[in-house]
Design a protein that fits this description.
The protein is of the alpha+beta class. The radius of gyration is 34 Å and the shape is globular.
């Protein structure tokens, strides 16, 4: 019986090549799109699954209250880890950790690598697998360092044993390799290339509460009760530090990547939102593809009515006919899946470029194989079940008498499905336009600094000590406008704190203020404007008790004039000599916290260089590299363009925009395939009517309008339905951003007109073909 089903199915496919192609191609596009999304989702949900003891590993962020609002920070006090081990039963391992970038030198090999300073528990918490050395021995030497396999091979080669070798770090310290561990996968939240004992960088300020610098990781015993342990962790900081309501809490390794967005001290989402969103979109795209199958199958019902009538008259039951039609749908879906695999092989590299991942379709992975088969099976059943029940319901008496087999309800459902397809397509078009507008709106806003032609470099002691000479030599090249040092990235929050007091204004104690330790050239280099007062002089010692404030901090001083006012914290007292125009940092959609600028370049971590506008980028980089090699020869010339780092801040929004654009194109393409098939079938059904109308004098334009108007009505209805749906979802999405666009009516008009235009082109191609056909051919049988 199954063999017979397959034979009939292939005969039907070959007999109707055009419609079979439309069905297969539409399903193949839907399966391809859904498969790409599911590969992305698989990668997202697999973050951090590589590590052992996932149910027991936690990160420890802190909640701190500023101006009545809880804010969550991924840093905690240095002594917190040891106090948790000592005071809280159930915590069996804990470590503070600090991420650092270090220069490694072996002979003439020089590489920069990012790693972690931590204690020995770190190796166990993350379950590092040692290739050379052992966990137990790795940190017994205070000069120890554990490398991952990639770093060891870069320094010593693939065939050489790294254990016991000495590495010069940051061109001054010697570290001994005490272990080599397996490379970590790409999909981890906290990547690192090496681990070394925290004692190597430990300082007094790391040992007391009130100074949050550490990433704290803990492991619970399998028997521990999470709620009980978390409750004790939340109370610990207040019991150890005076006059604070800061609270630490446990954040599961399973949530580090997917649920890392906090509001008022509570998890409110994160990447999981995009996982849910794109999973829904994948299912919608599959549904659109299945709708095509249903429409084309039911539209051509009269072509198979005689077959159904004869088979029923000869004794075939409805169940057997249903099985036959579902088998045909499954075969079509399997063929579409095969084409989809070919499309995936071709498109996956380009998709990886868009999403900045390295996804792989692995046919040795049972999940991928069974996933494709499951998608094909679901599509086949979903697409075939309604046509199967519809076709099998024909009455043989009516069919064999030549009466119409088409049921009115089927026509209504078919029109509804077309409306559904184009409604989804229009929503995608609206989302694409609005996401693009929102990104451009933020990118084009007044930032308060000039990100163009601005380079950022990490600094070391030599750059800080030689800064004046390096700055002069850079300017002397003619390629550089100016250079400056700063303790933090210009786009990030950097160091911050509270407890400042000043004259005037309201309560000041719980205001969070960001610090900027800079050279006097920073404002000119970054393109920042001093709106009142003056900047720093070249004399660091003279200006050590002076400070500049941002406009937002100056406004907090109330009626007090900022210039000449003082701001203090503990024993530190600064006289305000200038006000800097507010600038955007950290949250590109917000306004940033108040900023205090101090003339203390000794704390610098970043070196900023502004190139001259008339100099080509390649020429400027060549000149800068030559100067840096002269004054900082031990370090490789590595830099970041600030405008590129700025654009990277919008990667989530850009991902939504790019994928929405792709989905809009695919949804419209799939919808148009179905519309094309329906238009062709309608033209075929009405060819005698068209012939009569042409004989009676109807023009081509009248006939084209006659055939097109019914489909255009459906698209117009889609516009009406899609508008409130698109407005609801996009307005909710925009609420996430403090700095956002207003939704304009023209966006919906453009989206609707685009859908109408595409539908007109699709339908007209078949309508014109029917209108210019010779009426003699269609009326010959009459």
């Amino acid at each position: 019986m199954i063999k017979n089903y397959i034979k009939i199915a292939f005969r039907t496919l070959l007999k109707n090549k055009g419609y079979s192609f439309l069905n297969i191609f539409g399903l193949a596009i839907g399966i391809t799109c859904a498969s790409l999304i599911f590969l992305w989702v698989e990668d997202e949900v697999s973050f951090n699954t590589h590590f052992e003891n996932q149910d027991q590993v936690f990160y420890v962020p802190t909640n701190q209250k500023y101006e009545g609002e809880w804010r969550t920070f991924y840093s905690s006090p240095g002594p917190l880890a040891q106090d948790m081990l000592n005071d809280i039963p159930g915590i069996i391992k804990a470590t503070p950790s600090a991420s650092r970038e270090r220069l490694f030198t072996i002979g003439d090999k020089v590489i920069n690598k990012t790693g972690r300073y931590a204690n020995a528990d770190f190796l166990d918490i993350f379950g590092l697998q040692f290739i050379e050395g052992t966990r137990e021995e790795a940190f017994k030497n205070p000069d120890a360092i554990v490398l991952n396999q990639e770093t060891a091979e870069q320094l010593f080669g693939k065939d050489e044993n790294a254990l016991g070798k000495v590495i010069k770090v940051s061109n001054k310290d010697n570290y001994v390799v005490t272990g080599v561990v397996e490379n970590l996968p790409e999909n981890i939240t906290f990547p690192f290339d090496w681990v070394a004992p925290l004692e190597r960088i430990k300082a007094d300020w790391m040992t007391y509460y009130g100074n949050n610098f550490a990433d704290t990781f803990v492991e619970l015993s399998p028997e521990a009760n999470f709620e009980e342990v978390d409750t004790k962790v939340r109370a610990l900081i207040a019991s150890k530090a005076d006059n604070t309501d800061d609270t630490a809490f446990l954040h599961s390794i399973k949530d580090w990547h997917l649920r890392s967005k906090f509001e008022d001290g509570k998890i409110v989402g994160g990447r999981i939102t995009y996982v849910h969103l794109f999973t829904t979109i994948a299912l919608i795209i599959l549904l659109i593809a299945c709708i095509n199958f249903m429409n084309l199958s039911t539209a051509r019902s009269e072509k198979r009515a005689n077959e159904v009538g004869v088979r029923k008259a000869m004794g075939s039951g409805r169940g057997r006919l249903i099985s036959q039609f579902i088998a045909e749908a499954l075969i079509l879906s399997l063929i579409a899946m095969i084409f989809s695999v070919l499309l995936l092989v071709v498109l996956l590299p380009q998709f990886n470029l868009i999403i900045d991942k390295n996804l792989v379709l692995d046919f040795q992975n049972p999940i991928h194989v069974f996933g494709l088969l499951a998608i094909a099976l679901v599509c086949g059943l979903l697409a075939g079940i309604y046509p199967a029940f519809y076709l099998s319901a024909f009455k043989p008496v009516d069919v064999l008498k030549g009466l119409s087999a088409t049921q009115g309800s089927a026509k209504f459902i078919r029109k509804g499905l077309v409306v559904g397809q184009f409604t989804i397509s229009i929503v995608f078009i609206v989302v694409t336009i609005l996401v693009y507008q929102q990104i451009q709106h933020v990118k084009d806003r007044e930032l308060g600094f000039d990100k163009e032609q601005l380079l950022s470099m990490r600094v070391n002691d030599e750059i800080i000590e030689k800064f004046d000479v390096i700055q002069q030599d850079l300017i002397r090249t003619g390629a550089v406008h100016n250079a400056a040092l700063c303790n933090s990235e210009i786009l990030s929050g950097g160091n911050n704190g509270s407890g400042f007091t000043w004259k005037g204004g309201t309560d000041t104690e719980d205001v969070l203020i960001s610090f900027r330790n800079i050279t006097q050239s920073f404002f000119d280099t970054a393109g920042m404007e001093i709106v009142e007062g003056r900047g720093f002089s070249n004399n660091v010692e003279t200006d050590s008790t002076y400070a500049l404030v941002s406009e937002s901090l100056a406004r907090m001083m109330g009626d007090e004039k900022p210039i000449g006012n003082t701001i203090s914290r503990g024993d530190d007292l600064f006289e305000i000599i200038g006000v800097v125009k507010d600038y955007v940092y950290d949250d590109m959609y917000g306004t940033g916290d108040p900023v205090l600028f101090m003339h203390n370049p000794g704390y610098a971590n970043y070196f900023y260089i502004k190139t001259n506008s008339g100099v080509a980028v390649s020429e400027a980089l060549s000149e800068i590299e030559a100067v840096m090699k002269t004054h900082n020869p031990a370090y490789p010339f590595e830099y970041t363009f600030v405008d590129e780092a700025f654009n990277f801040r919008f990667r989530n929004e850009q991902l939504i925009g790019e994928l929405s654009k792709i989905f809009a194109i695919l949804a419209i393409l799939i919808s148009c395939l179905g519309l094309f098939g329906l238009a062709a079938y309608t033209a075929e059904q009405r060819k005698k009517e068209i012939g009569v109308r042409k004989v009676l004098g109807a023009s081509v334009s009248i006939i084209v309008g006659l055939l097109s108007k019914d489909f255009l009505k459906l698209v117009v209805i889609s516009m009406v339905i899609a508008t409130p749906i698109a407005w609801y979802f996009t307005s909710n999405w925009l609420q996430n951003y403090a700095y956002r666009i207003e939704i304009s009516a023209w966006v919906f008009i453009i989206a609707g007109l685009t859908a109408v235009f595409i539908a007109v082109v699709t339908v007209s191609s078949q309508a014109i073909k029917a209108a210019i056909a010779n009426p003699v051919n269609s009326l010959r049988s009459e």
